[in-house]
Amino acid sequence: MPNNKELKNKYDAIIVGSGGTGLTAALQARKLGLNVVILEKNEKTGGNTSRASSGMNASESLVQLQEGIIDNNRDFYEETLKGGGLLNDRAMLKYFVNHSALAISWLMKYGVNLTDLTITGGMSKKRAHRPGSMEPVGFYLTSRLTTQVKKAGVDIFTSAKVSKLLQDKNGRVNGVEVETEDGVKTIKAKAVLLATGGFGASKDIIKKYRPDLVDYKTTNQPGATGDGLKLAENVGAQLIQMNFIQVHPTADTDNPHVYLIGEGLRGEGAILVNKAGERFVNELSTRKIVSNAITDLHEARKIVSNAITDLHEDGAYLIFDYGVRAHFAAVEFYDQIGLVVHGDSLDQLAEKIGVDPYNLNETVSNWNKAVETHKDKAFGRTTGMDRLLDRGPYFAIHIHPAIHYTMGGIHIDTDTEVLDTNGNVIKGLYAAGEASGGLHGNNRIGGNSIAETVIFGRQAGIQMTKYARTIK
Asked: Which residue in 30, 266, 279, 287 is the catalytic one?
């Protein structure tokens, strides 16, 4: 456990999990006067949030206006609803959209300055806010929030796994049992927040709800095993939309460690090509559409054992140039760990990745014409078309779809209160972030998860404080 502090027997609020949601909630609750502790089962803070790379969506923000972008909450709402298959919880989505710009401004108050903009699939405007340095948003956010949380006087204990929620005789959640290096300890509290993330790394839960995805690799950190969902279920909470699991279209799965290749790379102008060196999809359609398009790629029909057979291709390639690379700093990390193939020319790049050089040159030429006219006749792409692919050297990253996000989870209301199977509030228990379900429908829009952690993390901090003030 860090901080060299002793875990107390009682706090006003216990927050389980130290990703974006937990850190935001802790900071907000502490600033409102609560005595708060964060319990994190992993050895390090940050959770899945620290792996996020694209941005944090918001509409009608001051940053957008500074960049000359006139946006409106209604469009953000409608596009997110459409992207989620019209299955989003409407009340949660409305709260989310209407509090998005405020969340950007709130972060700036604590030195988290998301002053650059990019675009993600399913969005019509640049809503994904990211650091001016264009570094990956997740680690930037969690590292700075961790500093602010500690500065505010919140204790953070790692290697501390919550194994049970405690309730009083009336069913109100009033504490936890936590497994530490020093043994099991009981801690009492007026409110408990489950900010434990999703279950993208849990083979057991995925097998139960989506057996068709059980063999997919995951971009999630190993601790994303749905712990909070199990804790909540054990006190009667309802789980919703558990079969809604998002497969991210662009992940490097060629190595033991799976690396997410952020959607912002396509937002800055990268394209996708198949083995023939040709585009095959609007790269900034929703993740569901792009993932399916990659999965459905087939090699040219071949004669195998005297039978004509369609063979699935081995993923696809992201293609980009130096100009795109200069606007997406995460590429430096991808390159450092060996995921990026270099070519001084498109011919050389094509040779290195084994695609047809003539087709690749033709594809890039056609794409550049589409960018110049802002008309993608082939696939109807209208966003992420700010720059030509004409500045060598050229680069490629081999990608496959991988499990990335779990839209389902604990049923909550807009106050982040946990609901039981009868729709009643379980007093004293809150949940937010990927641990909760309902906001995203059947497909999450890129950039909305970071926004969710901050928007509903703040709400959880506010509502826990409001509730705690009623408890003597």
From this structure: 287
